[in-house]
Amino acid sequence: MLDKVAVRNVLDKVKAEERQALTAPEGKLLCDVYGIKVPQEGVAGSAEEAAKLASGMGFPVVMKIVSPDILHKTEAGGVIVGVKSADEARAAHEKIIANAKAYKANAQISGVQVQQMLTGGQEVIIGAVTDGSFGKLVAFGLGGVLVEVLKDITFRLAPVTRDEALSMLDGIQAAEMLKGVRGGDPVNRDALADMIVSVSQLVNDYPEISELDLNPVFATKDGAIAADVRIVVDYNQPAPRPRHSQDDIVKAMNRIMRPQAVAVIGASAEDGKIGNSVMKNLINGGYQGEIYPIHPKAEEILGYKAYRSVKDVPGTIDTAVFAIPAKFVAGALTECGEKSIPGAVLIPSGFAEAGAPELQEEIVEIGRKYNVRLMGPNIYGFYYTPANLCATFCTAYDVKGSAALSSQSGGIGMAIIGFSRSAKMGVSAIVGLGNKSDIDEDDLLAFFEQDEHTSIIAQHCEDLKDGRAFAEAAKRVSKKKPIVVLKAGRTSAGAKAASSHTGALAGNDKIYEDVFKQSGVIRARSLRQLLEFARGVPVLPTPKGENVVIITGAGGSGVLLSDSCVDNGLSLMSMPADLDTAFRKFIPPFGAAGNPVDITGGEPPQTYKNTVKLGLEDDRIHALILGYWHTIVTPPMVFAKLMVEVKEEMTAKGIEKPMVASLAGDVEVEEAAEYLYQHGIPAYAYSTELPVEVLGAKYKWARGAGLL
C-alpha cells in the first residue's frame, strides 16, 4: 500500500516554503514510497557526522550538497565522488560547504548528503516532464554525462503500461547496448520497466511534479538503482481543457457532418461573395436536405426563401454555415444557441489569428453556454461526399471514396482538394479546422471512427490543443482504421528552459514523434506523403506477414528499392533455397535470384508474369514490390495490363497480397502507373521511394493494430 500521506506531507511542505524543487532526501522519500530503488544515504550536519555515516555504509561514497537553492549541484562544486576514507569524508564535507557558499552566498544549506557509491552497469536516465499539450510524459534514454550530448531519449504518455515501458527500452538508438555488447552482461529489463512504470505513476498521481530526473540509473543484470533524484514542482498547473463525452461528441458531429437542414448565415445572391459561393455549392453539389438562406433584407436567394434570423426558420436546423464579418458572428451565434442548433461552421477570419483573441474568446463562451460546437473560425468549411454536402466557398467536389482528410490551414486544404481531384482520389470528407476554437482533430476521429463511409483518416495539423485527448482517441481508432498525420513545425526549437535533463531534452517534435508511435498513428513527413498515404493505404490489402520480395527488371532500381525498404522498416525476405531455384527457372543465367529478384531488362512480358505469379502464389511471401524498366520488349502498358491480369487471376483464387510498383522509363510510364493504380496496385513513375513508403505505411498500421 502506497504511503501517499507521507508524499503529500513532503509536497505540502515544499509548497509552504515556496520552493520549486525537492531536496535529495525528500526525493528519496518519494522514491521509497513508490518502490524506486535508490542507494543507502544520510544527511550529515558536520564533518564528523559525514565521516561516521560514510564509515557505516562502507567506502567508497559520493557526497553532495543538500540545498533547495542549488539545483545543479555539480555546477556549484557541490559533488565529490570516490571518497575512500573517514578523513577524506571530513575534508569533502568542508570543501562542499565552502564551494556552495561561494556559488550562492545566501543559499539555504541543509547539510551534505553521504551516499553509497555505485559502480558498474549501464548508465541510463528515467525521467518525466509536463507538456502543455500532452500533459505528463515519462522518458527513458542513455544517461550519465552523455545524456545531453547524445540526446538519445524516448517519451510516452504517463502513466505507462508494463508493455509500453518495455517498448521504451527498444525505442532508443542505443537499444543494443542494453542487450550486452562485447561480452558484457545484458541489463535487467524487468527492473528498468518497473522503474519506468513507477515514475509514470508517481507523476500521474501528483500533478504538481512538473519535472523528474533519475540520472544516472545504474542498470545491471541484477537490477536497477537510481544514483541521483531530482524533482521539480509547479503548483500553478493550468486547468484542464473542457472535454465532451464520447457520446456527446458523436451525437453532435453526426448532426453537423450529416445534417438534414443547413442554414447559411450571410447568404448572398451577389457573385463573388462568400455567402453566394456557399449557397451555390450546396445547391450545385446535389445536397438533398433543407437549405435556409439567412439575410437581414432579402426575400429569397437563388430560389430559396430567405429569413432574417435562424430563429425565424420554422423547422429544425442541424448546421449553420457563417459567411459574415467577424464582428457580427457573436450575435448570430447567440441566435443559433437560442434555436438549439448543434453546430456552427465559422468561415470568417479576423479572430485569434488576426490579433483579436477577445472576439474568439467571446464566441467560445457563447458556444459553451448554448452547447453549440464550433468548427473554425478562419476555415474554408467542409465537404461530406456521402451526403453530397459542400458546406464551403471552395469549388464543389464529387469524387466519392473512403479517405477523410482535414487541415488546420486553408492553403493546405486547397492542396488536398486539388490533389484529390487530379489523382481521382475518392474522399468521404475534407474538413477545415482553422483556429480550432472548439472542434479539433480528436472530435473528427470520433466521428470518422463510426462513419461507415470512411476507411482512412489523414490529418494536417500545426499543433494539438489537447494532445492527450487526441492520443487517447487515436489509440482507440487506429486499431480499426489507419490514421495518418502530417505535423507541421517539426524544426521549431520547442523545448522551453527546463530545470532537469529530461526537460531540456523534451524537444516538442520528439514528443509528437513518440506519442504518435504510442498511439498507432502513421506520421507523414511531407504534404505529398500525407496525400499519397491517404490515397494508397486503403487500396492495399492487409499483409499477413513481414516477408517482402522485390522483383525488378533493372538492377539499379532493385538497389534503390532495397534502400527504401530499410528506410521504411520493411523486412526483405531471406530467399529459401527451393524458392530461389523456382525463380531461377524463369530468369536468364545472367539475371539474379535472391532478393531482389533481377529478371534483367531484355526479358519478354512472360518473364514478368511468371515471376510475379510465383511471388503471389508462394505463402511464404507476404508483399511484392515491382521495379519496371521501360524496354521495347515489354512496353509500359503491356507490363501494366499483364500485372493487373495476374493480380485479378490470383484474386479469383482467393490470393490477395499488397503489391506496389516503381516504373522507370519515358513518359509512357505515367499512363501505365495510373492504370495500375486504378486497378489496385499503387504505382509511381520516376520514383523508387514513394511506392515503398506507401507499403511501409500499410505495414506500420497493420503492426500497430495488432494484425501482424
How do you describe this structure in short?
Residues 28-258 form the ATP-grasp domain. With 708 residues, the chain is of the alpha/beta class.
Account of the 3D structure:
- The protein has about 700 residues and is α/β, with parallel strands linked by helices.
- It contains 24 helices and 30 strands.
- A 7-stranded mixed β-sheet has the order 19-18-21-20-22-23-24, sandwiched between helices. Strands 5, 6, 7, 8, 9 and 10 form a 6-stranded antiparallel β-sheet that branches. Strands 25, 26, 27, 28, 29 and 30 form a 6-stranded parallel β-sheet that branches.
- The model is unreliable at about 495-500 (pLDDT under 50).
How are the elements arranged and paired?
Layout: H1 4-16, H2 24-33, E1 41-44, H3 47-57, E2 61-66, E3 79-83, H4 86-103, E4 111-116, E5 122-131, E6 135-142, H5 147-150, E7 153-157, H6 162-169, H7 175-178, H8 189-205, E8 209-219, E9 224-226, E10 229-233, H9 246-257, E11 261-265, H10 274-284, E12 290-294, E13 300-301, E14 304-305, E15 319-322, H11 329-338, E16 343-346, H12 357-370, E17 373-375, E18 381-384, E19 389-392, E20 400-407, H13 410-422, E21 427-432, H14 441-449, E22 456-461, H15 467-477, E23 483-487, H16 501-505, H17 508-518, E24 522-524, H18 527-536, E25 547-552, H19 555-567, E26 571-572, H20 577-584, E27 597-598, H21 605-617, E28 623-629, H22 636-652, E29 659-664, H23 668-678, E30 683-685, H24 690-704
Parallel strand pairs: 11-12, 11-15, 15-16, 16-17, 20-21, 20-22, 22-23, 23-24, 25-26, 25-27, 25-28, 28-29, 29-30
Antiparallel strand pairs: 1-4, 2-3, 2-4, 5-6, 5-8, 6-7, 8-9, 8-10, 13-14, 18-19, 18-21
Helix pairs in contact: 1-2, 3-4, 6-8, 9-14, 11-12, 14-15, 18-24, 21-22, 22-23
